[in-house]
């Protein structure tokens, strides 16, 4: 296993694909880990050197004490790229990974080639909602909350048709440390990029899910409209679109990044 000891966190990462191919960084959603991208790897590695990592507080990465910010999450990625001697990379983030990409594209634009923002928004949820989520985790634990939370990640039809793959996500969420999950909830609580996204220069694709309640299609369209030249694609999914429609998702990403 590969780890990078950075200034504020220890990140687990995995690299697949040809050493001489363009680098694509994949950033996981809240409550998952780098494994959430497994269904994309066979196709993506035909075109890219794919760098997946576990966001701090998730998976095998460390769980720094306290609340986090997207400045910290973005700097973790910037330091990981330096650690791996990667000068520039495409970036694809889903849900929480989206604001990480927004921060990078705004604060460290020299690091970002093209940007793919999936099932996300410039402002996800409300401060009150995230504070309530933090309190709920403290009271109930993710172990107990996971099945209910995953109901919002996938459509009813998918969960009925694919109970085994649904269970994989439930188990992934259960393995997420409560403290790491809540630390990242605080980053989402405090983040609002709506006044800044018009400054993004990276070519950008926004992917939305028709049935997504966490980051709605309307929010996705608003995000694409606010970023100069960005385009919008909508898939017939709920929140974890890459898991629910892996082929369509991967095709949209590859077509955008290779055109």
UniProtKB/TrEMBL annotation:
It comes from Achromobacter arsenitoxydans SY8. Residues 22-246 form the AB hydrolase-1 domain. Pfam families: Abhydrolase_1 (PF00561). Keywords: Hydrolase. GO terms for molecular function: 3-oxoadipate enol-lactonase activity. One of its GO terms (biological process) is beta-ketoadipate pathway. It comes from the Bacteria. This is 3-oxoadipate enol-lactone hydrolase. The keyword Nucleotide-binding does not apply. InterPro entries: AB_hydrolase, AB_hydrolase_1, AB_hydrolase_fold, PcaD/CatD.
């Amino acid at each position: 296993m590969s780890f990078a000891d950075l200034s504020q966190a220890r990140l687990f990462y995995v690299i697949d694909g040809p050493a001489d191919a363009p680098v694509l960084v994949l950033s996981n959603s809240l409550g998952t880990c780098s494994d959430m991208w497994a269904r994309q790897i066979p196709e993506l590695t035909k075109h890219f050197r794919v760098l997946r990592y576990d966001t701090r507080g998730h998976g095998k990465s460390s769980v720094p004490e306290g609340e986090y910010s997207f400045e910290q999450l973005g700097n973790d990625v910037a330091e990981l790229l330096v650690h791996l001697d990667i000068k520039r990379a495409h970036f694809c983030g889903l849900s929480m990974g989206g604001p990480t990409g927004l921060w990078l594209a705004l604060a460290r634009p020299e690091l970002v080639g093209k940007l793919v923002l999936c099932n996300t928004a410039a402002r996800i949820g409300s401060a009150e909602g995230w504070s309530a989520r933090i309190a709920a985790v403290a009271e109930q634990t993710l172990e107990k909350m996971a099945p209910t939370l995953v109901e919002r990640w996938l459509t009813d039809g998918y969960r009925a048709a694919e109970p085994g793959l649904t269970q994989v996500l439930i188990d992934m969420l259960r393995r997420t440390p409560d403290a790491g999950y809540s630390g990242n909830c605080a980053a989402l609580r405090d983040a609002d990029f709506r006044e800044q996204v018009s400054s993004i220069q990276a070519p950008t694709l926004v992917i939305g899910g028709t049935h997504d309640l966490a980051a709605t299609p309307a929010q996705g369209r608003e995000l694409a409209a606010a970023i100069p030249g960005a385009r919008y694609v909508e898939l017939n999914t709920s929140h974890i679109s890459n898991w629910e429609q892996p082929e369509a998702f991967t095709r949209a990403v590859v077509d955008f990044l290779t055109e």
